[in-house]
Amino acid sequence: MVSTDSTSPIRVLHVDDDHVMRLMTKTALARSPISFEVESCASGKELLEKFEEFSPDILLIDMLMPILDGITLTRKIRLLPNDLGKAVPVVFITGKDNVLIDDRSSIEPILGVIVKPFSPTQLGQDLYSFLESFRENQ
């Protein structure tokens, strides 16, 4: 599902319940020298509704959201019909310094965690590095 065409933008499906964080993330990736196409969602439910149509290369998921937290959302993505969400890699984003993920096997591939506040000038490179490392290990 990950695009190998270097001229195509990297398709990022992003979810964060905080409007300001969604705007900051979208702006940071738009200003990156790396080409991204970003679809931002305000909830896990919205992300699930957009998942198939958007066909992301990578997911950027806030870990702490009401109703459907990042881990639970990722488990739901992995169980989507027709294995649509099985191989799409995830990068979590969180305001917590120490992140512990129990039972990673049910939500892999997880590429990493970005801690808020993140560097807007570095975000694009961080996502690209995570994705390239994932592609190399495939």
Given as residue ranges, the uncertain stretches (5+ residues, pLDDT < 50) are 1-5
Structural class: alpha/beta
* Series of secondary-structure elements, N-terminal to C-terminal: EHEHEHEEH
Question: What share of residues is helical?
Answer: 25-40%
Q: Mind telling me the CATH class?
A: Alpha Beta
CATH topology: Rossmann fold
Strand-residue fraction? 15-25%
Biggest sheet, strands in spatial order? 2-1-3-4-5
What secondary-structure arrangement, pairings included, does this model have?
Blueprint: E1 10-15, H1 19-30, E2 36-41, H2 44-54, E3 58-62, H3 70-78, E4 90-94, E5 110-115, H4 123-136
Parallel strand pairs: 1-2, 1-3, 3-4, 4-5
Helix pairs in contact: 2-3
Task: Give a verbal description of the structure.
- By secondary structure, the protein is an alpha/beta fold.
- It has one domain (10-136): Response regulator (Rossmann fold).
- 33% of the residues lie in helices and 20% in strands.
- It has a 5-stranded parallel beta sheet with strand order 2-1-3-4-5, with helices on both faces.
- β1 (10-15), α1 (19-30) and β2 (36-41) form a beta-alpha-beta unit.
- α2 runs parallel beside α3.
- The longest helix is centred in the last third of the chain and has 14 residues, at 123-136.
- The chain starts with 9 loop residues before the first strand and ends with a helix.
- Mean pLDDT is 91; it is low at 1-5.
Describe this protein with a few key phrases.
138 residues, alpha/beta, Rossmann fold, 33% helix
Quick overview of this protein structure:
By secondary structure, the protein is an alpha/beta fold. The chain contains 4 helices and 5 strands, in the order βαβαβαββα. It has one domain (10-136): 3-Layer(aba) Sandwich (Rossmann fold).
